[in-house]
Amino acid sequence: MAIHPVLTWGDPRLKRNSEDVGAWSPELDQLVADMFETAIAEEGVGLAAPQIGFNINLAVIDTSAGEDPARKIILINPEILREEGIQRGPEGCLSIPGIHEVLERPRQVWLKNRRPDGTWYEQEGEDLLARAFCHEIDHLRGRLFVEYFGPVKRQVIQRKYQKLHK
Ligand SMILES: [Zn+2]
């Protein structure tokens, strides 16, 4: 297993649209294991493949910080089917270290998600998990959470970020 360096805000590779995952392979098993390891090492709830330079529709989520294997979720070619309610809370991103901003997200989200074997199922998530679904799927579409804010607020965040990482 290996921890991969995470690409950070400003890297053009984070802005690309990702391609669907095709047939599953041992290499993808390895990549998923690496992604979980990287997310846990960086103390993140999730990690999307584009954040480590793979532009494919693959992401991992672990809301237990490595404590409970049953809570590991692999998103493969996921699509949001429906959303309900609103939650307001702080959101952060491993690609924008040090920045946490309050962002509105749906409180409950239903996904269509693929298993490695190619079969599909519906996955429901609420609260932190619903937020993680939205956040990771945004990465697969080339979108970072700070892009939800208007230009003025985004500039303030950008200055704060540059100050933190001088
Ligand atoms: Zn992120």
List strands and helices in order, with pairings:
Layout: H1 26-41, E1 46-48, E2 58-62, E3 72-76, E4 79-84, E5 87-92, E6 100-105, E7 108-114, E8 120-126, H2 128-140, H3 151-164
Antiparallel strand pairs: 1-2, 2-3, 4-7, 5-6, 7-8
Provide structural commentary:
This protein has a single domain (12-164), classed as Peptide deformylase (Peptide Deformylase, Alpha-Beta Complex). The protein is built from three helices and eight strands. The protein has helices at 26-41, 128-140, 151-164; strands at residues 46-48, 58-62, 72-76, 79-84, 87-92, 100-105, 108-114, 120-126. β5 (87-92) and β6 form a beta hairpin. The radius of gyration is 15 Å and the shape is globular. The termini are far apart. The model has no long low-confidence stretch (mean pLDDT 96). Bound molecules: zinc ion (ZN). The site of zinc ion has 5 residues, from α2.
The N- to C-terminal Cα distance equals 31 Å
Instruction: Write out the CATH superfamily name.
Output: Peptide deformylase
Write down how many β-strands occur, each being a DSSP E stretch of 2 or more residues.
8
Compute the CA-based radius of gyration.
Answer: 15 Å
CATH architecture: Alpha-Beta Complex
**SSE sequence, one letter per element:** HEEEEEEEEHH
CATH topology category name: Peptide Deformylase
Q: Strand order across the biggest sheet? A: 1-2-3
State the share of residues found in helices, binned by percent.
25-40%
Shape call: globular
* Count of helical regions: 3
Strand residue content? 25-35%
Query: What is the count of structural domains?
Result: 1
Query: Which segments are poorly predicted (pLDDT under 50) over 5 or more consecutive residues?
Result: none
Biggest sheet: strands, sense, closure?
3 strands, antiparallel
CATH class: Alpha Beta
Query: Whole-number average pLDDT?
Result: 96
